[in-house]
Amino acid sequence: MSARHWKRSRTPLRHLPIAAVAALVLAGCSGAPQEKGAAAGGEAPPLVIHAIDAGSFQEDFNPFHLEGVNFGSTGMIYETLEFVNKLKPGESTPWLATKHEWADKGKTLTITLRQGVKWSDGTPFTADDVAFTFDTLKKHPELNTGALDLTGTTVLAPDKVELDFGSTSYAKLYNIVGNRAIVAKHLFEKENPVTFTNPKPVGTGPYVLSAFSSQLYEMKKNPAYWQPGKPVVPTLRFPAYTANAVQSGLQQGEIDWAGAFVPDIDKIYVQGQPETNKYYFPPEGLVSLYLNLTKPAFAKPEVRQAISLAVDRDRIVKVAERDYTTVAHPSGVPMPGGDAYLPPEHKDAEYAVDVAKAKQLLQQSGVNPAELSFTLLVPSPYTDWVNAAQLIREDLAKIGVKVETRGVAFQDWVSKVGKGTYDMTIRGTPGGPTPYSALRTLLDGDLAKPVGTSSSGNYERWKDGETDKLIADYAATDDQAAQEQAVQGLGKIMVEKLPVLPLFYSPAWSQYRTGKYVGWPSEQDPYAMPSPYTSPDAAVVLLHLRPAGT
């Protein structure tokens, strides 16, 4: 997941809570700056990771789950069939699969598996496991977060499996091979995958769970991992830092790798230790203002357009995001680099604040001004989003729209947004191999669930026949020109119909220290998304690390 995207840490922390201190002391992590890599002699040191703000952890390592599952479940414990590098469009690395082949005009996918791979309990990994994983998605539609149109699976050989789809599925290759973790049939077939929390996970990945408490979980190297000599980092530790502790943890060298929003990062984190304290924030998706379209007022396009015209995105980027990113293109297409996918008639579109026109549109909408009162829900640990919400509240007050901003716990926010029980929210959408991935997640009618039912996308509940046709057009071909044309159509809908209001491109937050290990992703070598909350990328990063000084 990435996700996940969707889980990441952002808020600075001011004081380390007692529980977190205790966890770190028990973990032997104090005074981290003095620790050296294995090259300096002795046993290779552990890596302390902060992926998400959490006061405590639930014992959930089920990679089918959208909520409550702990980071590292996908990637570090459970693996995907291929690794797709979203920072290098078109680059895919064989992983549990060595090859895939489409047939029947994109309705059949034959996957050849790597031989010699074993589950961490010693059981051989086979095509039965892959077939079972996808059969589970078909049997339990609530787990089918990629909206795959699966009709069946056939095990052709111990190392070969066929997946069949009811519709052409070229465009869903990433959802099939790139972000679906494969589980062990011999264990999961005994459980209900919807409710099973999988407290003793058995995976094929480079790490195994070695300890768990509500304040700290730990993973150890899988000694039987199929990549010889890897991983080099022997132990991973995930302390339960609250949002108010992350910044201190980074400043004091207690955290080796974090995905956090840190204001004035050069002053707060880098200054004093520029040789070891690094960061890398490549764009990884789109952050948007969501208006719940099941609300009568937001169903009116004039209201959505008025709100968009009133929001000062330049101010949000400058004040809330500290200029770490840029205002998004109104089409939602990532720029630079997405030129071929921009709708030609809106290629040069950009946002401009126009309060007078916004007021005029609200009058034209016919909505009773008394109905223009909403709650803007944001996850309280994400301080930059909290600040952005305050700015939006101020902007909308200028056109007579009353907004109450409300910060809630991360999991509460995930639940409410997923189930559509909110008025307005700010949320990120992960990127993918092409802009189609994000736009499909934003707009696909198949992802729109009834209010009260969790959705894995289309959180605003957009339903539009033209949109769904363009999504289907893209998925029905592997011709790049035709796919670009379909995305251009989706971008045109974003600009003209405003189902979602893009704000800015989402940085992939990653702070890392090179005192113990080197080999981190960088602008010069973007081999994976650098954030510890991005799966399965985080595992790929760990597999690239080597001791400092080597």
User: What class would the helix/strand composition place it in?
Assistant: alpha+beta
* Uncertain residue ranges: 1-40
Order of strands, main sheet, comes to: 8-9-10-1-11-18-12
- Overall average pLDDT: 89
Strand-residue fraction? 15-25%
The helicity comes to 25-40%
Overall shape: it is globular
Characteristic terms for this protein:
550 residues; alpha+beta; 16 helices; 20 strands; globular; disordered N terminus
Give your account of this protein's structure.
- The strands form 5 sheets. The chain has a 7-stranded mixed sheet, with helices on one face.
- The radius of gyration is 23 Å and the shape is globular.
- By secondary structure, it is an alpha+beta fold.
- The protein has 16 helices and 20 strands.
Quick structural summary:
By secondary structure, the protein is α+β, with helices and mostly antiparallel strands.
Helix and strand layout, with pairings?
Blueprint: H1 3-6, H2 18-27, E1 47-50, E2 82-84, E3 92-94, E4 97-103, E5 108-113, H3 127-139, E6 150-157, E7 160-165, H4 173-178, H5 185-188, E8 207-212, E9 216-221, E10 235-239, H6 246-251, E11 257-258, H7 265-270, E12 277-279, E13 283-291, H8 301-310, H9 313-320, H10 355-365, E14 373-379, H11 383-397, E15 402-408, H12 410-419, E16 424-430, H13 435-443, H14 465-475, H15 480-497, E17 501-507, E18 511-513, E19 517-518, H16 537-544, E20 546-547
Parallel strand pairs: 1-10, 1-11, 14-15, 14-16
Antiparallel strand pairs: 2-3, 4-5, 5-7, 6-7, 8-9, 9-10, 11-18, 12-18, 13-16, 13-17, 19-20
Helix pairs in contact: 8-10, 9-11, 14-15
